[in-house]
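note to self — DONT lose this again. spent like an hour looking for the file last time. sequence + predicted structure for the chain T wanted, 210 res
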Amino acid sequence: MWELLAHGGLIMWIILGASFIGALIFLERLFHLHRAQISASDFLEGIYNVLRRRNVVEAVSICEETPGPVAHIVRTAILCGDQEREQIAEAIEEAGLAEIPRLERNVALLATIAQVTPLLGLLGTILGMMESLWVIHQRAPLVSANDVAGGLWQALSTSAAGLAVAIPLYVGYNFLLHRLESILLDMERASVDILAFLSKPAVPVEVDES
């Protein structure tokens, strides 16, 4: 293994560095999205039960203690519960827009790394082939296999490393996208549900500032 790294040259180390950064991004985003995704239906049902008792303070406290964008959106809606429907909807929309960048942070960078590493491998391949051709040019007509082996090793090892890094990172990127889409769908559903609940005339919700 060490010999493959040594034969790969500088490009190989760049690919390895990119793979390390990509792995860190994936694990951090995976943990963050795992905490951010809750059972929105169960959470909302609990909030509704509290609000039916007109205990706004407890409902807000539950939202603050629950991680994830759904809880933040519901908290915003509850705090604006004494306002008109249009104002509540606007506050919910602003809260949702503020949450999206937090969810998507560094995901695009992961995709970039997955796309760039095969190109780095191709660059290493070209450099390795150029090195082999240069050796052949310098030592022709008496050229041995050992003379060109170094360049060929670099060409093959960097290509293999670039693909070996890019494939799992791209799979991880698509997995994170799937989790993101699921959370965004939960946010949209929670926004609609809490707005409909707070808009019912029979359930007046006023912020208790005591």
